[in-house]
Amino acid sequence: MGQARLALPLPVLLLPLLLRAPTTSAANANWMYLGLVGVPPPLQQAAPSGGSGEGEGLDVILDDPELAEARAVCGSLPGLIGAQTNVCMEHPSAIKSIAEGARRGIQECQFQFRHERWNCSTNEHEQSVFGYILERGSKETAFIYAVTSAGVAHAVTQACSGGELTDCGCDPGISDQRTTPQGWKWGGCSDNLHYGLQFSRKFVDAPERTKPNSGDPKARKQFAVRARMNLHNNEAGRQVVSSLLRMHCRCHGVSGSCELKTCWRTLPAFSEVGDLLKRKYRQAVQITASRGRRRMRRKSKNPRSGSNQSNRGGRNKWKRSLSKGDLVHIHKSPDYCVTDPARGIAGTSGRACNKTGSGAQSCDLLCCGRGYNTQVVKHVERCHCKFVWCCYVTCKTCETVMDRHTCK
Ligand SMILES: *[C@@H]1O[C@H](CO)[C@@H](O)[C@H](O)[C@H]1NC(C)=O
Ligand SMILES: *[C@@H]1O[C@H](CO)[C@@H](O)[C@H](O)[C@H]1NC(C)=O
Ligand SMILES: *[C@@H]1O[C@H](CO)[C@@H](O)[C@H](O)[C@H]1NC(C)=O
């Protein structure tokens, strides 16, 4: 009897666990929360709290040490939906990389937007991480989805190469020792991006593939449209990682002659991914969700299209088709100028700005025309340092005075 039960598929075993999961998490908790808090320590071997009728399933889990361990790791994670907990149960060693991927994505977002009105700030006390901005469906929403999805693909791939995961290693597809027509061999450890991409699809995309229970047709349609937007941006983020994959080669042979060359593929630094995604953010395409359920299309009033749509060939010119690598959004961005606590928008008051610059960080743009305050700030530094024989350094202290401008 016990034997037969062990053969049940994982989701069935998980059911009692999931049903009992506390429903404390705030509305729209999100897996990205792992990027803020990391992976919490595994649950203590929870004694089955005197429940009714659910003890049986639990016993089976505890019979199997691997399952018990997976449950201890995956059972306590904040922000995950059921399908993501299932992925965790199947690959418990990967959960650290998922958290690392989210962390990388959030950190890169904050770096890329450090000078802008919206600076990608997060809320550590909310499992939704970005709150309203993640719900909005604007360009910023698109960037967040793309960069965190890319982060997971990147971190999981790196963990594969580092031997940290049980289910993957170097790319097996190109590790065989065949010589290519160009006369070099694949060698070393090529990063297994294929695995990282698949993993990101499975885990990061899961919430978009989970239909809401709500019977309200309007809510369902809205969910479907947003799901399509999110899936598109998730994939665009992953595609950026793919497009930046590099080949490295090393020469072998007597005194530097390149008789034999071995080559392998490596991941780009994540900052390169961030740079390219930021460029895509600037050119993000606004879409409308119409014409059936499957198609997305560019919203026709495209500000970049110029005004000569009715001219010769105009229609086709401005209606550039949507490409897989574009970031897409449905709604316009709020202006982010004014504090709006209900939506978690901090506003730009108090932000440091550049009086002379002309970019996003300029006081003109960042302060939204409200003007700025000027403070004189003193910097005290060690300076004129001298090396004294032997062996210490003497320095003077220098004071510099600078103006610091902050938005009103
Ligand atoms: C974003 O700006 C706010 C001020 O508006 C500041 O408090 C916060 O630390 C900044 N966040 C980041 C991530 O730079
Ligand atoms: C639009 O067409 C008019 C002539 O029909 C031309 O003078 C104008 O420069 C064009 N504008 C753009 C943005 O191409
Ligand atoms: C302000 O912008 C100017 C020109 O872009 C730049 O040279 C300067 O270093 C910036 N100042 C600060 C404090 O960032």
UniProtKB/TrEMBL annotation:
Keyword Metal-binding belongs to the record: no
GO cellular component terms listed in the entry, alphabetical order: extracellular space
TM spans (from-to): none
Compositionally skewed regions (Basic residues) per UniProt: 291-302
Gene3D superfamilies tied to this protein: 3.30.2460.20
Domain of life: Eukaryota
Disordered as annotated region, ranges: 286-319
Sorted UniProt keywords: Developmental protein, Disulfide bond, Extracellular matrix, Lipoprotein, Secreted, Signal, Wnt signaling pathway
Position of the signal peptide: 1-26
Family assignment from sequence similarity: Belongs to the Wnt family.
Function: Ligand for members of the frizzled family of seven transmembrane receptors.
Name of the protein this chain belongs to: Protein Wnt
Gene transcribed to yield this protein: LOC117645150
